[in-house]
Amino acid sequence: MAQDQNYILEMCNITKKFPGVLALDDVTLRVRPGTVHSLMGENGAGKSTMMKCLFGIYQEDGGEIFVNGKKENFSSAKHALETGVSMIHQELSIVPERSVMENIWLGREPGKKLGPVQFVDHKKMFKDTETLLKNLEMEFSPNDRMGSLSISHQQACEIAKAVSCDASIVVMDEPTSSLTETEVNHLFKIINSLRDKGVAIIYISHKMSEIFQISDDVSVMRDGKLIATKKASELDEDKLIKLMVGRDMTNRFPPVDSIPAEVCLSAKNYTSDVERSFKDISLDLRKGEILGLGGLVGAQRTEFVESIFGLRKIKTGTLSINGKEIRIKSPEDAINAGIGLITEDRRGSGIFPLLSIIDNTSIPSLKGCRKKVGFLDHKKIFNTATGINKKLRTKTPTFHTPIQNLSGGNQQKVIVSRWLMTLPEILIMDEPTRGIDVGAKYEIYTIMSELVNAGKAIIMVSSEMPELIGMSHRVAVLCNGNLTGVLEKNDINSENIMRLATQFE
Amino acid sequence: MDTKISAVADKKGIVTLKTIQHTLGKHTNLVTLVVLIVALGIMTGGRALQISSLQNLMVAEAVRAFAALGVGLIIINRGIDLSIGQVVGLVACVSASLAQTSDYAGALYPGTVFPVFLPIIVGIAVGTLFGIINGLLVAYGNLPPFIATLGTMSIAAGLQLIYTRASTIGSLKNEYKHIAQGSLGPLPYLMIYVLAAVLILWIMMTQTRQGKAFYAIGGNPQAARVSGINVKLNLLKVYALGGFLYGISGVLLSSRLGLANPLTGDGMELDAIAAATVGGISHSGGIGTIGGIFIGVFTLGIITFGMTYMGVDSYYQLLVKGMIIIVAVYFDMKRHAKRA
Amino acid sequence: MKKLIVAALVIMTAVNFTFAAGQQEAGSEKVTIGALIRNTDEQFVADYAENLKKLAAERGVDLKLLDSRSDQAMQLDQLNVLLTQGVKHFVIVPNVTEATEDMAKKIDAVGGGAAFSNIQPSVEALKVSPNFYLASSPESVAGQIQAQILDEYFQAHPEKMANGDPNAIDAIFLYGQLGHPAQVFRSEAAVKGLKDAGYTVNIVAEDTANWKPDEAQAKMDTWLAAYSGKFDVVIANNDGMALGAVESLLTNKYTDDPSDPTKDVDGDGTVLRVPVIGVDATGVAVKSMSEKKLFATVLQDAVGQSTTAFELAYMMATEGSATGKDAWGISPLTEVTGESPATDAAIVGQCYLVPFAAVTMDNYKEFMQ
Description:
The complex is a heterotrimer. By secondary structure, chain A is of the alpha/beta class. Chain A has helices at 47-54, 77-82, 100-104, 122-135, 151-164, 181-196, 208-214, 237-245, 301-308, 331-336, 346-349, 357-362, 378-391, 408-421, 438-453, 465-471, 494-501, and strands spanning 9-18, 21-31, 36-40, 62-67, 70-72, 85-88, 111-114, 117-120, 169-173, 200-204, 217-222, 225-231, 263-272, 281-286, 290-294, 314-321, 324-326, 339-342, 426-430, 457-461, 474-479, 482-487. Chain A folds into three domains: 9-245, P-loop containing nucleotide triphosphate hydrolases (Rossmann fold); 250-338 and 424-505, P-loop containing nucleotide triphosphate hydrolases (Rossmann fold, 3-Layer(aba) Sandwich), CATH 3.40.50.300; 353-423, no CATH class. Chain B is mostly helical. Chain B has one domain (52-339): ABC transporter involved in vitamin B12 uptake, BtuC (Orthogonal Bundle), CATH 1.10.3470. Chain B has helices at residues 2-12, 14-25, 27-43, 51-76, 84-97, 117-140, 145-164, 174-181, 189-207, 209-219, 221-226, 231-257, 268-278, 290-309, 314-339; strands at 183-184, 187-188. In chain B, a hairpin with a 2-residue loop joins strand 1 (183-184) and strand 2. In chain B, helix 1 (2-12) runs antiparallel to helix 2 and helix 6 (117-140) packs antiparallel against helix 7 (145-164). In chain B, 58% of the residues are buried. Chain C has two domains: 30-136 and 301-353, Rossmann fold; 140-299, Rossmann fold, CATH 3.40.50. Chain C is built from eleven helices and twelve strands. Chain C has helices at 2-23, 43-59, 72-84, 100-109, 123-127, 139-156, 181-196, 213-227, 239-251, 283-290, 302-319, and strands at residues 32-37, 62-67, 89-92, 113-116, 132-136, 168-175, 200-208, 233-236, 276-277, 297-299, 351-353, 357-359. A six-stranded parallel sheet of chain C has the order 2-1-3-4-5-11, with helices on both faces. Chains B and C meet through helix 2, helix 3, helix 4, helix 7 and helix 9 of B and helix 1, strand 2, helix 3 and helix 7 of C.
């Protein structure tokens, strides 16, 4: 294949399969030198998989990568860096207790030989760093402790590190997610100066305004495919959103035909204890209703629902259940108030890997399963727990099998069973179908539909647009900790959700 | 494996199934113990295996068993306790000082007659107090358990020296010594205490909400919290329970020795942790049973007993003990790795 | 729970199966002696154990020697095991005096006897039966001898008293592991001995160095910075720590002649400005004395004690009793002394005091190997 010298990076026909999923489907991405190339798409569109293939974290199943016209196949981020391809991650990889210069030169410290022994040349390291920082107009010293710098300065260090390796391609993954306005401007100044030096920047972000402010080219990905690459000047926000969400909606959802009744849960003025988290959120939930909670990664949806459940502290806010104001200070309070929470991170805070399905199901409900002296009523526990699991069609050899032996979908059903066993009136489901296969997804949706038909209420946090659209009676959207809008049934569509989800100011 | 179990379970129901699965899970420990017993029998031509040997073994391991049960529960909750030996020693000293014969001139409280139950109560209270302090530091102070208990270990060691003025507390009342030295027919009291404790703790861990909460916290503290379990309070409880058991251990130790000094209990934390570990308590938390700890204690006990019986130099005893611990845990880890 | 029952059943079956075999164990012709010794990490105890093994080999005795690693609970377990094996006669280096009575009672219950060394048994222990003996030079004697040596030194060199008061000694103490009987008895006796000799004892500094030379050296370095010129003597619970202190004094040039640390300028028998005194008379310690570094030490006669104890146990095993007989040429006491347990007339006949020796500049050559 002839390579066009106009491009500094070409990723041609990249395909990546995961069991049951085609994560990247014949994607071709071309980046010109001296440009900022934005990569856009919904959560799960394949942006980060693409970058992971570039850096050799994943091995692509098909396709080729060319840097400067030369075929490359990086085995690690270090390998990529040596070839001039660098990545600034969303989660900065710094050593906070060491100095700026030590961080920048980590693993490739300039050396000097003293006889047979190689020493670190601290003087040279300091000088080189000083020059580097001056060229990038950064106002901190090479000797500053990394941990003492602000996040934006830490990020600037990472950029300096990339520059120090003569990187010709720098990938930035959501670099502004934790920056303030002025910090963003400073970052853009650095990006512009890099671009002027001929560096290509691949910029991954959800923030529309930034995209138009900084990009030369924009590529949009959706469902593992590259939809389009266009000049930023040819696009506007509406066009971009359409490119991002314009998918055909096939019938992947059971009918949700319950009719919401009276309000059963009402949160008012919920503000987090933590700065930069959610602020002043007021929401109502009705019996028989599925309330979708949409937003981008970092919109603070999980933080909000976990606060309702008493897992996180709030600074202000009141909560009423069935019109009665109550205070929830711990999950125990929430459970007693008839609330259940299926957490987003099934492994981290959902399952007890080594415990059986019975134990995993019954743990929050043991209070009601005791005999006179306080001994557990094993028979009752067994019957109730297996009954619910059978109803949800949890597939398992026996109900005494450790939950870690089950598939993700079946684990999720056990977790749902756990909360059904507490007989909740309100169920909060945070990413209820994350990481489970399509068949199991449908079954979870069916359970949800049955629950609301029985008069229960569900808050469903989801990053999957189709799920929000297909399952919700209403969708509330958060952006950057603010409630940017609540969409009624007729207004629920991708464009509206995406607009609210990117309404940053 | 699983399908086989299910076949049995479907026919016989819940109790059998649970037992079989638990037994299978911990099979290696029991096998190790039986192998060691048989090996000892062969090596001594059967002479080492007599009723009196069993009595010796029970008596020798009883005090350690209480400590191992305490720390075993803590390890199930993803903790660790290094203060055991010194707390047991402190409890032994305090309880001994309250059980000295009143006419003994060298007594710490000469001429004062304390009731026999006083040293027991005060001793157990001291142990529990240390457990509570450990629990508060770990659960509410968020100190790593290793560090918190390292601190209390040193504090307990210091208090022992201060309280005893670095001397031995001897001449204990016969009634007090009888608590640990007496026997009911062929059954030493110590054996009865241990069996009772094992039974009670076994019931707690398998038949009550408390036990489920401990296993849940050890298995996944975040998930436990989401499930409405008060993780901090339960951590406090388990350290306090540990301290309570060390308290019993210390009282029994002073009663059994008929004395206590600052060296009493030294190094017991390592024996107890080793026993719990050999008994299948995983340091990654959430795994292990009371029966397992019991077997672990007796596995190490039979090694000591056997080698003492055969007159093996104590230097080699340390060597062999170390190797048994490593081998037992190696196979345990392997088994869990395979499952995960 | 089921598992526990299974475990218990397995053990029980094994026990029952072999119970008969256990019963059939016949006493062999060989004399068996059990030796329960405190901890061979201590030089004295190690020498004691070595000599026992030698004696047993010479006499064809089956010696069952067990080391309790300083753990009284373990010593008790070991006693139980040996009793189970039918051993009746014992040589014991106990961990603590207070434990001896209970041990004696257990041995007496099977009609046996024992000789206690190094740490003295209680009066009550010897009263259990006439078959229990003391074969020892008690720990406190080491302290007493240290006091005697120092008394002689200061009488000869009153000018070496730091504060000018010939009746007040300013001492630095290096203790062994706190609470260890040797630490307690040696220290107490040294202080008491000096007081009995008419001195006031000011403890300038005191701390444990856990028997270890390196810890002692570090302690001494610190103290020298704080108390230079303010102390008359360094008293250590063993030679190891004494030598650590000597090393510190040498490196800090706390010598008669700072420019030549081999010169004993004032002729007091040591090149150091103050005398340092230990216990044990180990090989290195005596060598140090030959270089006039360490001033003095005390010999605890491990060979003498172990031979006496062994002979007592051997006589009991072969002749049924050792009462009134000499052991290693030592006769039992006939009169009470001021030293426990030989303070009770009823049992003085069970006490064999092994001579001990001060190792000073006058006689150290006798102890060089």
